[in-house]
TrEMBL record:
Domain (Ketoreductase): residue spans on this chain: 13-196
Protein name in UniProt: 3-oxoacyl-ACP reductase FabG
Keyword set includes Oxidoreductase: yes
Organism of derivation: Gordonia hankookensis
Keyword terms, alphabetized: Oxidoreductase
Length: 252
């Protein structure tokens, strides 16, 4: 694509992104706005989400809503902002997530429950609530953010790996339910992506992960966002129930 030409892949469409105040979520929002979309950012940190709206160009193109994805009424309010504020819900990106890493021996039940609840129940809430709106319009795209941890399992992440694997199964089941309604549901599994969270990793852990990557570098948030844009747009119109790995070839 000619980078100087305007990108109109999502012209006139409205996208909701959970966990949209920072990191991969914010970069996805930026790529969507650049493609002509209006975006609604849902995040527990409303202040950070409001700051993100300013970065994206203000309330004409972006809105911020405090959202707890584990609470279905909170997700309803988030989606209502898209429908009432911008007139439609065309794309849903379920990206909100947290980590509470610990070995099985030391992990508390609360840390297991919380990670499962945010990732798995949160993605279920976002998927089912968005699908209910989209089926009325007979079109829509849902993009769920899983992780390479859901494919291979990571030490210290029995909670996170289980939740991210669950997102894959949920994506495929939802894709089968929604295909005849014109709604597509796909997932992305990022590998090691450079962000504030991963850069806080101990150097030894970083080096070990790097050694597993054939492309010999970490990914950038923009490299996940461009795949989300592809899945959100008509470029992927005959794709549903797929899982796209953005990993630099790690664990292929």
């Amino acid at each position: 694509m000619d980078s100087s030409a305007p990108n109109t892949l999502l012209d006139g469409r409205t996208a909701v992104i959970t966990g949209g105040a920072q990191g991969i979520g914010l970069e996805i929002a930026r790529s969507f706005v650049d493609a002509g979309a209006r975006v609604v950012l849902g995040d527990l940190n409303e202040e950070a989400a409001q700051a993100a709206v300013e970065k994206l160009g203000g309330t004409d193109v972006a809105r911020a809503v405090r959202c707890d994805v584990t609470d279905s009424t909170s997700v309803d309010a988030l989606l209502a902002e898209a429908v009432d504020g911008f007139g439609s819900l065309d794309v849903m990106v379920n990206n909100a997530g947290i980590t509470r890493d610990a070995t099985m021996r030391t992990m508390s039940e609360d840390d297991f429950d919380l990670v499962i609840s945010v990732h798995l129940k949160g993605t279920w809430n976002g998927t089912r609530k968005a699908a209910a709106i989209m089926r009325e319009a007979k079109r829509g795209a849902i993009v769920n953010i899983s992780s390479l941890s859901g494919k291979v399992g990571m030490v210290g992440q029995t909670n996170y790996s289980a939740a991210k694997a669950g997102i894959v199964g949920m994506t495929k089941a939802a894709a089968k339910e929604m295909a005849h309604h014109g709604v597509r549901v796909n997932a992305i599994q990022p590998g090691l992506i450079r962000s504030a969270m991963t850069e806080a990793m101990p150097q030894k852990a970083w080096d070990q992960k790097m050694a597993e990557i054939p492309m010999q570098r970490a990914g950038e948030v923009g490299e996940v966002a461009s795949v989300a844009l592809f899945l959100a747009s008509d470029m992927s119109s005959y794709m549903t129930g797929t899982v796209l790995e953005v990993t630099g070839g790690r664990f292929m």
